[in-house]
UniProtKB/TrEMBL annotation:
Subcellular localization: Membrane
Chief site of localization: membrane
Topology class, membrane: Lipid-anchor
PANTHER family the UniProt entry points to: D-METHIONINE-BINDING LIPOPROTEIN METQ, METHIONINE-BINDING LIPOPROTEIN METQ
Protein name per its UniProtKB record: Lipoprotein
Region of interest (Disordered), residue spans: 27-55
Lineage: Bacteria, Bacillati, Bacillota, Bacilli, Bacillales
Pfam families reported in the protein's UniProt record: Lipoprotein_9 (PF03180)
Entry keyword set: Lipoprotein, Membrane, Palmitate, Signal
Similarity remark: Belongs to the nlpA lipoprotein family.
Signal peptide positions (record): 1-21
SUPFAM superfamilies for the chain: Periplasmic binding protein-like II
Sequence ranges of Low complexity compositional bias: 27-53
Length: 296
C-alpha cells in the first residue's frame, strides 16, 4: 500500500470515530432528558397519591347523657362515628339537671337525657335557646311497688310517690287517670299538673311529691311509686315488675338537644343518623325489652 493511501485511510477512520462519538453523546442526552421528563411527570401523581392516603381529620363531639340507657346507647354507636372521623366523648353527670346548663355554657355540644315536655317546661324559665334534632327512644314510665302485687291491691288511703318536676308529675298523674284511679280537671294542655288538679280521687290516695331519683329507694316507705324507667334500670329493679305502665304511644320520646344553629353541624347530623339505624333499634330491643322502646 502506498504511503498516500495509508494517510487517507487513517483520516477516514478518524472521521468515523468522531461521528460515532457525537451520536453516542446525543443519545445519552436524550435518554437523560427523557428520564428527567418521566420523573417530572410522575411527581404530580405521587403527590396526589400521598394526599389521598392522609388520614381523615378527627373531630371531637361531646355529648352529655343520663347513665342508662342513654350513655349505653351512645357507647354502642361510638365505633361507627369513629370510622367517620368523629371522636365521641360521653359525659355522664351525677345530677342530670345540670345537663341543660352544661349545654348552655358550651361545656358539651349536645345532650341526650330528656323528652320534649320536660324541655318545654324549663326552657322559657331558664332562657334556653335549644333545638331538638331527633327522637331516639321512649322509656315508658311505670308504677312499681315492693308491697303490692297488682293494681287491685291498691287500698283506700294508699300513699303513692310521684316525680316532683312539672312534666313528669303531669305524666304520672295522667297514667293514674288512665288506670281509673283518679280524674284530672279538663284543659291541662301544658304538660303540667299537680295533685291540686285532681277533681276525683275515689280511693282517697295520698301523694308524696319527690325528686325522681329518690323514688326507687323510697319504695319500702310507700305503697307504690311511679318511676322513670332509666331510674328503674339504674336501681336494678326489674322493669317487668311494673304493675302498669305507659304504652308505646307515649309523647315522651327522649331526644337529642343542641344549641340553636348547631343542628346544621355535620357531626351532629352524623350523630343523629348513627342513633336511628336498624342496628340501634335491634340493640335497644334486645338489651332493654319493654323498658325502652325505639322511637324511630
Amino acid at each position: 500500500m502506498s504511503k498516500k493511501r495509508l494517510v487517507v485511510l487513517v483520516a477516514l477512520l478518524f472521521v468515523v470515530s468522531l461521528v460515532a462519538a457525537a451520536c453516542g453523546s446525543n443519545n445519552n442526552g436524550s435518554s437523560s432528558n427523557n428520564s428527567e421528563q418521566a420523573s417530572a411527570n410522575q411527581n404530580p401523581s405521587d403527590s396526589t397519591s400521598s394526599s389521598a392516603s392522609e388520614p381523615v381529620k378527627e373531630v371531637t363531639l361531646k355529648v352529655g347523657a343520663a347513665a342508662v340507657p342513654h350513655a349505653e346507647i351512645l357507647e354502642f354507636i361510638k365505633p361507627k362515628l369513629k370510622e367517620e372521623g368523629i371522636n365521641l366523648e360521653i359525659k355522664v353527670l351525677d345530677d342530670e339537671g345540670q345537663l341543660n346548663p352544661a349545654l348552655q355554657e358550651k361545656q358539651i355540644d349536645a345532650n341526650y337525657f330528656q323528652h320534649v315536655p320536660y324541655l318545654d317546661s324549663v326552657k322559657d324559665e331558664k332562657g334556653y335557646n335549644f333545638v331538638v334534632t331527633t327522637k331516639v327512644h321512649v322509656e315508658p314510665i311505670g308504677f312499681y311497688s315492693s308491697k303490692l302485687k297488682s293494681k287491685d291491691e291498691i287500698k283506700e288511703g294508699a300513699t303513692i310517690g310521684i316525680p316532683n318536676n312539672p312534666s313528669n308529675e303531669y305524666r304520672a298523674l295522667v297514667l293514674l287517670q288512665q288506670q281509673g284511679l283518679i280524674k284530672l280537671k279538663d284543659g291541662l294542655t301544658t304538660y303540667e299538673a299537680t295533685p291540686k288538679d285532681i277533681i276525683d280521687n275515689p280511693k282517697k290516695l295520698k301523694f308524696v311529691e319527690a325528686d325522681s331519683a329518690t323514688l326507687p329507694r323510697s319504695l319500702p316507705d310507700l305503697d307504690g311509686a311511679i318511676i322513670n324507667t332509666n331510674l328503674v334500670l339504674e336501681a336494678k329493679i326489674d322493669p317487668q315488675s311494673a304493675l302498669f305502665r305507659e304504652d308505646a304511644n307515649s309523647p315522651y320520646a327522649n331526644v337529642i338537644v343542641v344549641r340553636s344553629g348547631d343542628e346544621n353541624r355535620d357531626e351532629i347530623k352524623k350523630l343523629d343518623e348513627a342513633l336511628t339505624t336498624p342496628e340501634v333499634k335491634k340493640f335497644i330491643e334486645e338489651k332493654y325489652g319493654v323498658a325502652v322502646v325505639p322511637a324511630f
